[in-house]
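Researcher: Following up on the earlier apo prediction. This time include the ligand. It's fe (ii) ion, with the SMILES given after the sequence.
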Amino acid sequence: MKQVISGSELRASLHHLQLSSPDPEILARFYEAKLGMVPQRVGDAWVCRATDRCLIFTAGKPNGLGFAAYRVHDAAALDGLARRLRQHDVATEPSPTQLFAPGAVAFRNPDGTLMVFGVPREFPPIDTAMPARLQHVVVASSDAERMVAFMTGTVGLRISDRVLDDEGVLRTCFMRGDDEHHCFAVFQAAESRLDHYCFESRDWNSIRDWGDHFAAQHTQIEWGPGRHGPGNNLFIFIHDPDKNWVEISAELEIVPSDKPVGVWPHEERTLNSWGRAPLRS
Ligand SMILES: [Fe+2]
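Model: Understood. Below is the ligand-bound prediction.
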């Protein structure tokens, strides 16, 4: 279903992430072996790529989200974003990524994490037998409401679903940049940090295939299989060597542009309708 996008909204999808690690090469080798991504040393960074998925690892603290890079389709989208950032007095920074063409727009979200929106450069495809497209990133924030206000009111994402506790306080919010249920989400937590990132595969059988693949690699599934409430996606989670939480999901909900914002209770069943779930706060 084609989404109707107004002038204050942004059509965007997650393209790549930069993560810091005490040992970037160990992470690069892990994603090569387990996720079929080809590592390449570029300066001080490791760029790990397969078709539809890319992670960049740099030296630094573990579990650090250096930046999240979102794809837009044309320069007009970037012009609109830059205009909204100026209207809200949000400073821009030089783009930190070589994977986007010149003209990418970079700025910091309220928790200080760099966000980049740009048009990807063309690279030769790197096919793998295991399809999974980098699809969303989720952060925890000490002020989730502020993050949501910024990512919707300034950046131009749209809210798909909100999770509220018994007092009506926002605990989680799922936001979309196209017709997929979410490309960015935020949990309310004691401190701001990366929560997890997700590769979207095709269907239930592909979740099975990833599970068998991880079994052959002696990589344990840490959570799942299960099904999220908001987004309705099937999922499994593994840990990488830095204990980053890596999700493989499938069948993420496609939502119509006029979908009313959904409200879910803050309980385990919302995070996993099939069983147990770790509440973030
Ligand atoms: Fe997720």
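Model: The pocket of fe (ii) ion is lined by residues 136, 138, 196, 198, 247 (CB under 6 Å).
Researcher: Noted. I'll compare it with the apo version next.
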